[in-house]
Amino acid sequence: MFDNLSDKLDKAMHVLKGHGSITEVNVAETLKEVRRALLDADVNFKTAKEFTNTVKEKALGQNVLTTLQPGQLMVKLVKDELTELMGGETAGIDLSGAPTVILMSGLQGSGKTTFSGKLANYLKTKKTKKPLLVACDIYRPAAINQLHVVGDQIGVEVYSEPENKNPVLIAQNAIAHAKKNGFNVVIVDTAGRLAIDEAMMAEIANVHKAIQPHETLFVVDAMTGQDAVNTAKTFNERLNFDGVVLTKLDGDTRGGAAISIKSVVDKPIKFIGTGEKMDAIDVFHPARMADRILGMGDVVSLVERAQEQFDEDEARKIQKKIAKNQFGFDDFLNQIQQVKKMGSMKDLVGMIPGAGKALKDVDIDDDAFKGIEAIIHSMTPTERTQPALINGSRKKRIAAGSGTSVQQVNQLLKQFDQMSKMMKMMQGGGGRKMMQAMGNMK
Questions:
Q1: C-alpha to C-alpha distance for 260 and 403, rounded to whole angstroms
Q2: Is the separation of the CB atoms in 210 and 191 below 8 Å?
């Protein structure tokens, strides 16, 4: 996500490095590269021009603080302006209705149905809501079935009327069903439509008028770039939607839609889709996204994800086991499962400041733990709780059973032993000993 743009902006900032002061000449040179980077990322031309003009005015109007070098100041100005361009503040979702009605709109193939499921799952698990999904796509073959499959996957009821060909009536009946059965959120999934299809655009406008949704979200595939922005404009003229959802932001996208859509339609990006799984949905935070674009990572999101997976009871059990020197491979396996639930490895690495840039050419596989898991699964229950029992013959058996080598088994045992010692030292507050141990691990 944004890899090319990040690289180009980084190179643009290098123009100012080493300069003792900001001048009109070196600012113009830097911002020419910044504008080129934005245009290459498929940012709207007018948006890119206004962006660089604003940064230029602010840069030339600044007295460089003694603690900031010109390059650092320019990075700060670009970051602040990028944040503003993408909306400034994080936009919430209105959940005040009884029930709250959310209408999903967008083009064919934009990922509306999948995102409707992700949003229902998010509201159910993070906001403790009872959502109802509504199948109002009466045109696409198997669309109703697809929504039922998604609903089953996340444990959310789906309302559908397969014989009814009137989406307005289906939506109204679904809201009545929700009120009668205690659902507090209704997510209406509509058919994808082309902006140029007048009959289809009139149909969704009629659904909108009939159900008066609290939130109308426009779902757009981030990989369509500038076309996404133009389409958003057309849909907004008809629906006056409340916010944008960018799907497929984890793909090989240049990111232009994320940067320019707010300035063109003046509607906030509310959510982003970051993968195929049902929990691959994030609230859009403009400041955090600006940090990531400029290669500064996103530690806050990383910590939030870790906290979501953190189990306090499990943590207490592990603390006791460490204190009694009983931390085994089953506990280690549980920790791996918690890390995997946090999201794709590449996405997590991108949140660590500097790591994304350092590892940009490294293919980080989501199956990074596969070998470790295979080795642990090939151990007997006794070996997992008492790793000291694993001798030469046992190592050969474990390697054969896991499809790995004895060398890999040895490596895991060594790392596990070092990690156990460090955890024990942390438990006892032995900071000095721990630092020594870390030095010996090199």
A1: 49
A2: no
Rounded CA-CA distance 103/82 in Å is 29
Distance CA 143, CA 413 (A): 50
What is the structure's pLDDT at 429?
A: 47
In this predicted model, what pLDDT tens digit does every residue of 177-215 receive, in sequence order?
A: 999 998 999 999 988 777 667 888 888 888 999 988 999
Q: Is 141 helix (H, G, I), strand (E, B) or coil?
A: coil
Q: If DSSP codes are grouped into helix, strand and coil, which group holds residue 61? A: coil
> Residue 356 corresponds to which tokens in the numbers above?
């994304």
pLDDT of 50: 84
Return the CATH number of the domain spanning residue range 100-296.
3.40.50.300
Q: Residue type at 429?
A: G
Minimal CA–CA distance to 177: which of 124, 133, 126, 237? Answer: 133
Q: How far is CA 66 from CA 13, 20, 21, 62, 73, in A?
A: 19, 10, 11, 12, 11
Angle between the N-to-C axes of helices 24-40 and 3-14, in degrees from 0 to 180, rounded to the nearest 10: 170
Beta strands in 151-258 (DSSP E): 158-159, 185-190, 215-221, 243-247
What's the length of the chain? 442
- In CATH, which superfamily holds the domain spanning 3-85? SRP54, nucleotide-binding domain (1.20.120.140)
Q: Tell me which fold the domain 311-440 belongs to.
A: 434 Repressor (Amino-terminal Domain) (1.10.260)
pTM over 0.85, yes/no: no
Tokens read off for 217: 């979200």
Nearest by Cα to 126 from 88, 154, 98: 154
What mean pLDDT do residues 234-252 have?
80
